[in-house]
Design brief:
mainly alpha; disordered N terminus
Amino acid sequence: MPFAAGGPHCNHRLQRERGLKSAGPTWAEDVYEEFAAIVVSNVYRSELKITQLRQDHHGFLPLTGPDTAAASFKTTYQQYLNDMAIEQPQLCRNLRRVPSAFNPFV
């Protein structure tokens, strides 16, 4: 069974429930929140064996280049991933257990 039946917006819902999503986000908050939603979505897509991952939230352009490999992605975005682990520890622990080719939480 896929881990995120709620789809890519489950991260937004979790943040609102915990009071972490601001009412009027700044550009930096928008980038972080959207990053978190897209990375969760990409782990989910990978779990479903969908090889084309999303680049960002500005459309449906595919993720390309070295960041399509989880290890490279993890290196590039380590600070955002660390922030997610602090703000949403249970979600990140659950994501570590997802068996998928793209999983920067492992």
